[in-house]
Design goal:
This protein is an alpha/beta fold and about 325 residues long. It contains eleven helices and nine strands. The protein starts with 5 loop residues before the first strand and ends with a helix.
Length: about 325
């Protein structure tokens, strides 16, 4: 088994009966546990106007989680850059890096992380999504030592080495990440359809940069680990129910599911869910070891990032422990 770095993506999801406060405290527990197990990083994603997701103020959360841990890298998966001025993000992440040196990652996405109406409420203007490449270059300029003679500078931020990642859920950003010579993280945990095409484009078009000599691919996948395959299959029902809610636009808090929703029996809904589950792995340690070995060998990814939509915190922490054992070199 190839021993590759494993990391965690946290959406700071509110579970049934929980609150935003408990969702945030649970995320801290996940981070502490991940640090103890030797996971490389934990990222949080920017989402807006979503009743059961508590990660809208992503930079604030990153600071909170970094302050409750000691060594694990903490970052954004991602900051949806069109929602923000590059200067503000440079200042926020410059501040985070100043407080927690060599621990902060800045993953950047092009999507709004919300519906279009919310995107309009967030954005400076509606053209910002088209400025994504230029906004990234502006961010790099603010972090650069070479910006010291400019009229607008980022303090804190200037001169700091904050790793920038390009995030993607389609092939668009693969070209950009390759052109800029930046590491590339793909959201195959919810949009796996173009994953293999995107990483092929990224690798084939990659241009070495001062930051990266060769391509670096991180795949985000869903993993639900338990003592037995049967237990993991029960956990999968919660994820299926969550995806049904996304597809039918009837979102509910994450909860234990005994019986799958009736609407899941509709062929179109079932097919849409199955498409979203293409990069989802569930089972016992032995099952995960076998299936992930194949996935890692086939895709040659450099790092795995794990999304685990498990309603019970103890079961979630146990899942990360079992995964760690499954991916450890014998």
């Amino acid at each position: 088994m190839t021993n590759i770095p494993i990391s965690i993506l946290e959406l700071v999801t509110v579970v049934d009966g929980g609150t935003f406060s408990t969702a945030i405290s649970n995320t801290v527990e996940v981070a502490k546990n991940a640090e103890y197990l030797g996971y490389k990083r934990i990222w949080m994603a920017e989402h807006h106007n979503m009743e059961y997701i508590a990660s809208s103020a992503t930079s604030v959360l990153i600071g909170h989680v970094a302050g409750k841990t000691n060594s694990i890298r903490v970052g954004s998966g991602g900051i949806m850059l069109p929602n923000h001025s590059p200067l503000v993000i440079a200042e926020q992440f410059g501040t985070l890096e100043s407080i927690y040196p060599n621990r902060i990652d800045l993953g950047l996405g092009r999507a709004p992380g919300s519906d279009q109406l919310t995107a309009m409420a967030l954005r400076r203007n509606q053209e910002t999504a088209h400025n994504f490449p230029e906004d990234i270059r502006q961010l790099q300029t603010y972090f650069s030592d070479n910006n010291r003679d400019a009229k607008v500078r980022a303090f804190p931020g200037e001169g700091l080495d904050i790793p920038i990642w390009i995030l993607g859920s389609s092939t668009d950003s693969a070209y950009l990440a390759a052109e800029m010579g930046l590491p590339y993280a793909f959201a195959s945990h919810f949009a796996p359809a173009q994953f293999r095409a995107a990483i092929k484009i990224y690798r084939n078009n990659f241009k070495p940069s001062d930051i990266l000599e060769k391509p670096y691919v991180m795949a985000c996948v869903n993993i639900l680990a338990a003592d037995t395959d049967e237990e993991a299959n029960e956990l999968l029902k919660s994820l299926i129910s969550l995806f049904v809610g996304i597809i039918t636009n009837k979102r509910k808090p994450l909860k234990q599911v005994v019986k799958l929703p009736e609407v899941y029996q509709i062929p179109e809904v079932r097919q849409a869910v199955n498409n979203m589950l293409a990069c989802t792995f569930f089972g016992s340690k032995e099952t995960l070891k076998k299936n992930l070995s194949v996935f890692i060998e086939e895709t040659e990814v450099n790092e795995l990032m794990i999304a685990s939509h498990i309603f019970d915190l103890d079961a979630k922490l146990k899942s990360f422990s079992i995964l760690h054992e499954a991916l450890s070199v014998n």
